[in-house]
Amino acid sequence: MAYKHGVYTQEVPTSIVPAVNTTAGLPVVFGTAPVHLATDRAAANKPVLCYSYAEAVQQLGFSKDWAKYTLCEVMYSQFALYNRGPVVFVNVLDPKTHKKSVTDKSVDIADKVATLDAPVLLDTLKIKASAVGSVLVAGKDYEAAYDDDGALVITLLDDGTASAASSLILAYDELDPTAVNEDDIIGGISVSDGSVKGLECLNKVFPLTGLVPGIVLAPGWSHEPTVAAVMQAKAGNINSHFKAITLNDVPTESVKKYTDVKNWMNQNSYNDTAQVVCWPMVKMGDDIYHMSTHVLGVIATVDSSNGDIPYESPSNKSMQINGCCLKDGTEVVLGPDEAGYLNGQGVVTALNFIGGWKCWGNRTACYPSNTDPKDAFISIRRMFYWHAQTFIQTYWAKVDKPINKRLIQTVMDSENIRLNGLAAQGCILGGRVEFRDDENPVTNLMDGIIKFHTYITPCAPAREIENVLEYDPAYFETLFS
Fold it and tell me: What pTM did the predictor assign?
């Protein structure tokens, strides 16, 4: 030890640990994107974090053909209609595999311009002025780019070798979204190179972005029972530490009446505690959306108004829609009785009754077979997941610290302060954390295992408000006063 002479100071860690700020409802959306239109194309099967519409379009492209390109539906809804971000997109449409080759495609030239309505992968495009001619050079003989409508425009340059051509012969690969199937959304791990695809990419979100997934959805695919089952499995075990809810749709092609929804759910095992099931579809103008897409927008709006704490239900909050419908556009009219029936079967829907179109429903898919509040209410289920992910991230730095009184007291003091703050804000009715001797046997402590016990009561949504009216003849006395 060095010889000391004088006055010295030193610091010790603060005994109270500030909680980590988390994104409670970070959505992770799986589907297909028109990457041939992207100016800075993101790799397939890679989580792409986007905070704005422009950022999403730049990396994934955009098309109004939502049947082929399902991610665009969420992209437009979240950023244009609800103005909420961020969103993590996972595009499973891989240009390397989901493509088809086109050869000897003839297109006519008008004023040195040819237009082609096809999802051409520009890096594969080869152009000739004739079948036996040489391949033209981009930038020298022609320019090729997509217009705002997604059509490929080929412009012949005045000083190019084909400036006088009246037609062109094209060869190219084009994106084929019809080649994508359920297996691509489900994904898995490649045996050959260990790469991950589809829903398996959910485990890559936190390592890549530092943000914990809070909501998992796949509009256009989540009505497939096999996809929904894998969504539940992956969302329930993210990086072996975190959990998220899923938003699932019921197919309106086969389920056209509200009374048939629950039977379909039972037959296809849509009954999980972390599953929010939606029916029917909705529309805004000429655009038709999956209900799950707009429920996501409502959840994001409510969370953002509550400091990113998911304690309030999305039910009875405004939706940016002007009607309910089936996939073919057939209007669906639901009154309070029909919507209430769906809610009582664990289904979220939309209702236009008082105050315009509102998201309507508080229950997860496990209701009514499971009535435990922490499982059956969407907001309470989300609060439990949010509290857990906050606890994990906040105290991760304490892992492998010596088990002593200071460690135990630091966690307990920090957590109780946080819980008291949540109660003061009205986010919970109350909460406390304890370190119980009956849950921490000496054998566990000797093995480096400690367990805390948190008691927490998030607020239940006031799903039913009743006022009892009674005729009181005693007020006739006012006639004689």
Answer: 0.92
